[in-house]
Amino acid sequence: MRAILAGGGTGGHVIPALAIAQELQKTYGAELLFIGTARGIENRLVPEAGFSLRLIEVGALNRVSLATRFKTFLGLPGAVMAARRMLSEFQPDVVIGVGGYASGPAMLAAILERTPTLAFEPNVVPGFANRMVARWVSGAAVHFEETARYFRNAEVTGVPVRQAFFDMAEKGRGSEKNTLLVFGGSQGAHAINLAMMQGLPELLKQTPGLHIIHQTGERDYNDAQSAYQRMGASAEVSRFINDMPSFFALADLLLCRSGASTVAEIAAAGKPAIFVPFPRAADDHQRFNAQALERAGAAVVLEETKLDDVWLAETVSALLGDPARLERMSRAARSLSHPHAARDIAAMAAQLAGLPG
Description:
Elements: E1 2-6, H1 11-28, E2 31-36, H2 42-48, E3 52-55, H3 66-90, E4 94-97, H4 103-112, E5 117-121, H5 128-133, E6 139-142, E7 154-156, H6 163-169, E8 179-182, H7 190-206, E9 211-215, H8 221-231, E10 234-238, H9 244-250, E11 253-256, H10 260-269, E12 273-275, H11 285-295, E13 299-301, H12 309-320, H13 323-335, H14 341-352
Parallel strand pairs: 1-2, 1-4, 2-3, 4-5, 5-6, 6-7, 8-9, 8-11, 9-10, 11-12, 12-13
């Protein structure tokens, strides 16, 4: 079996793609090739994982200026032709699009070559690349039931997540204190950081004894550290957290963004969350992701524009003061988890490639 995984740009695209690739390799002995662009994180992560990577040149179409969009459209036929040459050389049995810049041209090339295609879509509303090819793909692996309507032959598989997050769901609390875990991705989330620093006096007043674990990113680390020290708060402040599953285990409540990978990790760990969607995310996908968990009873959504110190403090205090509600939220989150996502997506790809079930 030979498979191409196309797309990337961010860890939210590349990390699940690597999990799928590893499952294809382990279970089906697949030969694999990644197609990405020169500016994506795939340039570091894919070679580090031991996979081959080819690059195509393609610009952005979503949330960019008219001039950039026009330039991208002009270059799109060349990107598709480059991808077709790669397909011709590699001769894949299936092409898996994981979203991101390279996904669209590679999937279009596969459709033109009549190669089976599988779209992987972790968000409630598909990204631009997957929307572009949705009507023609052979199948789709989605995270949310409501996403299936965008595609033919869609299956709800979930998003591949490290086993450590599922293991956390089986463990009890690691601390006697009420613990709030705050993070915003590897770079932090400036708006959340500011809200925490400004709202700290009110937060500590409403939630005495609160312990805070805060990943700030590099930009706000020093200011946040100083704010916690001035208030005498019980806090662990880090620029970056490497072992996030262990900190999930300590937390009673999370305050974070709502990207697809974060949402999947929260479901896997069965943790209640306050989501602050990034308002400038492509297609507003973070808001839709957050609202999906809120509808399920697993999360509360605070819009960034309303993230003032009083609202934040009252929301955190109300949730931590209601253990029964936190437990219901945990169960609701866990009900949305998919422990075998990588296996199920790989099985879909293998079936499309013509391997016996």
